[in-house]
Each structure stands twice: as structure tokens, then as C-alpha cells.
Specification:
Elements (H helix, E strand, L loop, with lengths): L1 H4 L41 E2 H17 L1 H6 L3 H17 L7 E5 L2 H5 L14 E4 L6 H18 L4 H20 L4 H4 L13 H15 L2 H9 L20 H14 L6 H18 L9 E2 L5 E2 L6 H20 L4 E2 L4 E2 L1 H15 L24 H4 L12 H9 L30 H4 L3 H18 L8 E12 L5 E11 L6 E2 L2 E5 L5 E2 L2 E2 L7 E3 L6 E2 L4 E8 L5 E6 L2
Antiparallel strand pairs: 1-2, 2-3, 4-5, 6-7, 8-9, 9-16, 10-15, 11-14, 11-17, 12-16, 13-14
Helix pairs in contact: 2-4, 2-6, 2-18, 4-6, 6-7, 6-9, 7-9, 9-10, 9-11, 11-12, 11-13, 13-14, 13-18
EC number: 3.2.1.4
Family: Belongs to the glycosyl hydrolase 9 (cellulase E) family.
Main location: secreted
Length: about 575
């Protein structure tokens, strides 16, 4: 749903996010090319090519690796549509074999304004890569995205899958032949998505093309270039839109485990050693060379939007766990022997933290749970829909009227993973704290595959209900036989300060006497009760009381369900 909120262009009839409308309808017009579509990057309206392509690769990897799990959850249609919204744009952005339109919009002028995408008044300049302006990192990542997407679509639309593969091969050839960093060619991207190099993207694209085609040319490419391009020499502790080495190393570990008699075994084992380094570092078993963690147990990579690195690492560990399990293999870390289940359990711990099992009991996935950020650093979410506020919200007026207002956002941007807490698990739910409250494509993309796999293994995470029960005895007496009875009063309190509770359903066990103030549930389930018709809603901080008569210990009351 977050990806639907980020759509640029002419929206489709299946759009579920109703506060969004058509936007960016003249993208590419000044350059004489159709660049409608694609995704806005984060809380802004720039279409940055590198993180968009990486996010598409991660969506597609999830759809390929966890196809069964996503299909079982009836989410494959939505996943493929999210991928196709990007790949259709990439196809249009690649009109010739050696030309790739890499960016629409300028970060500096875009960030100067706070306005809805539908009101956009900032320049929509478009920037391209070609022979004279190379960008091996961005072209390589786009090739990887198209190759991975071709695999995702292959069981459902073989002709579209084949088309994606044609573009992927051409882009890889372009990236490899005309080498250079994209942000040297598109210098206004340096402030926002600076590249650390292009070697990892060339290896990454080759691995995905090998997986999509089975052509040994691409496997030989990563073998021959492993040392020179850093694939077999760089041990890394981070995987992101900029750094792909860990992904390359884990995918090639799978190639090795699938065929241990490969003529390239010795080089593939070097890749595998670096994949193990990444996993050991995440699980704190790497001889002191580990990823930092917060006191609450969250992996901590960077101050700015840390959760995008967490979601990527958790996805990689989940995929690596599946590969190890299929090969009946494990990992020998400097400090411990790790089983596949150890990797999956750790990935689950990171997902659980994101969903609310953390020191602040806050879900960092917007719309999930009862306590999640409401002041998201996102232009569209912070301003009422154009269908409600029809007058244009100007560039500066948006800051004055909407960015600075203390109230929460009028639109819930479901599925947005915010930047997340700081190194001490602290979080400031404030639009101006963009390091913590801005969501990104890169952060959300790995979650589809990650959550689908975890759901299939562990089921739905338990959410602690924001309800407390306060018991008191208001009267006591004895019958003629000396049996003591007690009149119990129970106050139900909604402990949430933000959300109302509806349709609260309670299980009351060990009740031996009469009860007043609750109704038996309509489904007739034994010992289950609900609030009476006129009291269905408990407002934030609200209370409701009921009484029961009991001889002996008090009854046990638990929450069955609520909304």
C-alpha cells in the first residue's frame, strides 16, 4: 500500500490509496520523452533512479524467493503490480540500448517546497545517462531490477518477462562498456544518493542475469571479476541501495550450494566466506567485528533512516537461511556455529522490533498496531487530499499551514516504514525529525518478502492489547452455610492515548456466579463477552466497568480480540 501512495503518473483504477490523484503528467515532456510513471522516492517528489531500481530488485527478489508464501497470503497480485509500476517506467526510460533516463526532478528545488504531488510547481528536469555521461552503478542496478522482475513475472506473463530480459541485457552491456559513477554524470544527485562505486552493481546485475538466463557468460563474469571488483575481497556489514556486495555474496553462496562440483568452486567459496562474514556480523558472532546494536536489540547502521538498512539485512538473513536449510548447511562464525534457524530467528527479532516489540512499544510501520508515528515526514500524507481541499497548496504555504502544524497527519500512509529510532532506541514523532520519520522506497521494499516468510513460519505476531483491568472487591457476605461471596468490580481501561478500541471481546474463565454489565457474544462462544450495544467504543484513556459475584478467587479475564 505504501508503494501505491508513492505512485507517479496517471493512477490506475485499482488504486487503493484514495487520497492520492494523478501527478507528474508532464514528466519528460521538455526532453521529448515519455517519463510518466515510476515512484516518488520518499517524502518528496523526485524520481531518483538508483533507490527506485534497488527497491524494484528487492520487491522482485521477494516475489521470486517467497512466491509460495506471498501467494498463500493472496498478495502476489499486489506485489506484481507494484513491480510493474516501476518496470514499465524503466522500459520507457530506456529508449535506446545505450541511453537510460535516470532521474526526474531536482532534489534541491523539490525540497524547497512542501506541497502535494498533485500541486507540484517545482521544475521537472530529466537527466539521462549515455556514452558521454556514464552511470554503471545506476544502469547496473536497473539491469538487476529488470532481470529479477523477469523471473518474478515468468510464471504469469512470459512475454512481458522476455521483454524485461531484453532490456536487462542491454543495460548490463551499456553499464559494463561505458564505466563511470552516475553521480559524476548527474551531479545534483550527490547530495541525496551519492554512489560509493559501481563495481558491486556490475557484479549484482551479472548474478541476476545468470539467475534469469542460466547463461554461463554471466557466471564467468562474476568469477573472473571477483577480486578486481571486490566481490571476493570485501567483507561488508551493510546491504543497501548503495552497497550490494552482501547480496552478491549470498546469491553466489546459493549457486555454490546448488552445485558443489562447479568448475568455479574455488572462487565461489571466496564469495561464500564473505557472505558468512555478513551473517556473523549481524548476529554478533564475528570476533568483535559486528554490526552495532541499540540497547533494545535493533541493528544500528546509520543515524539517517536506519530502518532501511535493518529491513534489508533481515531480508538477506531470511533468504540466506532458506538457502542454507535447503543445502542442509550451517555457518562457522568466529564465535559460534550458526544453524539456518538462528538466522531466521534473528531476522524475526528485527521484524518484531519494527512492529512494536521495542523499548517504546511503538510500531514503526505506519498503520500497524495501535501506537505508530502520526507526524510522518511526507508531503502527501501531511496535507488533506485534493478531493477535500481543492485549492492548490502553494510551495511556501505548505510549510506554514501543514508542515509546522502540531496535529498528526490527515492521511494515514499505510505500510510506510519510517526511518526509526536513534542509537539509544529514542524516537521523536515530529515531521522536522526527517532522519526518523521519513519513509523510503528502499526501506519498505524488502518487507514484502520478509514478512511473508515470517508469517508462514511463525504466524501473526501477537500484539499486546492496550487494555488494563483493575479489580476491586466492593462487598462481601456469607450464606447460611458460611460460604463467603464477593462482589467484584472490574474497570476496563483503554491505555492508548491515540486510538479508540472497538468490538472488544473478552474471555472470562473460572467464573462461578452471575455477571452484570457485559453481553454474551453474538456467536455464542462459551465464556466470551463483549461490551453492551451502547458502549461498543472505548475512547483513548476511556474506562468501562462491570461486576460479577464470585465465591473463591477472582475470575481470569483476557482479551480475545479488538479493533
Amino acid at each position: 500500500m505504501f508503494f501505491e501512495a508513492q505512485r507517479s503518473g496517471k493512477l490506475s483504477v485499482d488504486q487503493r490509496i484514495k487520497w492520492r490523484s494523478d501527478s507528474g503528467l508532464r514528466d519528460g515532456f521538455l526532453q521529448g520523452v515519455d517519463l510518466l510513471g515510476g515512484y516518488y522516492d520518499a517524502g518528496d517528489h523526485v524520481k531518483f533512479g538508483l533507490p527506485m531500481a534497488y527497491s524494484t530488485t528487492m520487491l522482485a527478489w521477494g516475489a521470486v524467493e517467497f512466491r509460495k508464501e506471498i501467494t498463500h497470503l493472496n498478495q502476489m497480485g499486489h506485489t506484481l503490480r507494484a513491480i510493474k509500476w516501476a518496470t514499465d517506467y524503466f522500459i520507457k526510460s530506456h529508449p535506446q540500448p545505450d541511453i537510460l533516463w535516470a532521474q526526474v526532478g531536482d532534489g534541491s528545488s523539490d525540497h524547497y517546497c512542501w506541497e502535494r504531488a498533485e500541486d507540484m510547481s517545482t521544475p521537472r528536469d530529466a537527466y539521462k545517462l549515455d556514452h558521454e555521461h556514464p552511470g554503471s552503478d545506476l544502469a547496473g542496478e536497473t539491469a538487476a531490477a529488470l532481470a529479477a522482475a523477469s523471473l518474478a513475472f515468468k510464471p504469469y506473463n512470459s512475454s512481458y518477462s522476455a521483454l524485461l530480459l531484453v532490456h536487462a541485457k542491454q543495460l548490463f552491456a551499456f553499464a559494463d562498456r561505458f564505466r563511470g559513477q552516475y553521480d559524476d554524470s548527474i551531479q545534483n544527485a550527490q547530495q541525496f544518493y551519492p554512489s560509493s562505486g559501481y563495481s558491486d552493481e556490475l557484479l549484482w546485475a551479472a548474478v541476476w542475469l545468470y539467475r534469469a538466463t542460466g547463461d554461463e557468460y554471466y557466471l564467468k563474469y562474476v568469477v573472473d571479476n571477483g577480486a578486481a571488483m571486490g566481490g571476493t575481497t570485501w567483507g561488508v556489514k551493510e546491504f543497501s541501495w548503495d552497497t550490494k556486495y552482501a547480496g552478491v555474496q549470498i546469491l553466489l553462496s546459493k549457486v555454490l550450494m546448488d552445485n558443489s562440483y562447479s568448475p568455479y568452486t574455488s572462487i565461489l567459496k571466496q564469495y561464500q566466506a564473505k557472505a558468512q562474514y555478513f551473517a556473523c556480523a549481524c548476529l554478533q558472532k564475528n570476533g568483535g567485528y559486528n554490526v552495532d546494536r541499540t540497547p533494545g536489540g535493533l541493528l544500528y547502521f546509520h543515524e539517517w533512516n536506519n530502518l532501511q538498512y535493518v529491513s534489508a539485512a533481515a531480508f538477506l538473513l531470511t533468504a540466506y537461511s532458506a538457502y542454507l536449510s535447503a543445502a542442509n548447511a550451517n555457518i562457522a562464525c568466529p564465535d559460534a556455529q550458526l544453524q539456518p534457524q538462528d538466522l531466521l530467528n534473528f531476522a524475526k527479532s528485527q521484524a518484531d522490533y519494527v512492529l512494536g516489540k521495542n523499548p517504546k512499544s511503538m510500531s514503526y510501520l505506519v498503520g500497524y498496531g495501535t501506537n505508530y508515528p502520526t507526524h510522518i515526514h511526507h508531503r502527501g500524507a501531511s496535507i488533506p487530499s485534493i478531493s477535500l481541499l481543492r485549492s492548490a497548496v502553494g510551495c511556501v504555504r505548505g510549510f506554514d499551514a501543514w508542515y509546522s502544524r502540531p496535529q498528526g497527519n490527515p492521511n494515514v500512509i499505510y505500510g510506510a516504514l519510517v526511518g526509526g529510532p536513534n542509537k539509544n532506541d529514542g524516537f521523536d514523532d515530529n515531521r522536522s525529525s526527517y532522519e526518523q520519520t521519513e519513509p523510503t522506497l528502499s526501506g519498505c521494499a524488502p518487507l514484502i518478502g520478509l514478512f511473508s516468510k515470517l508469517q508462514s513460519v511463525y504466524g501473526t505476531p501477537e500484539q499486546e492489547a492496550p487494555v488494563e483491568f483493575f479489580h476491586s472487591i466492593t462487598n462481601t457476605w456469607a450464606d447460611g452455610r458460611g460460604m463467603a461471596y464477593y462482589r467484584h468490580r472490574v474497570i476496563i481501561k483503554n491505555t492508548s492515548q491515540k486510538a479508540s478500541i472497538r468490538d472488544l471481546k473478552l474471555l472470562i474463565q473460572n467464573l462461578s456466579g452471575s455477571l452484570w454489565g457485559l453481553s454474551s457474544t453474538r456467536d455464542g462462544e462459551r465464556n466470551t463477552y463483549e461490551l453492551p450495544q451502547g458502549q461498543k467504543v472505548l475512547k483513548p484513556g476511556g474506562e468501562y466497568s462491570f461486576v460479577y459475584i464470585q465465591g473463591g478467587p477472582q475470575a481470569k479475564i483476557t482479551v480475545v480480540s479488538y479493533h
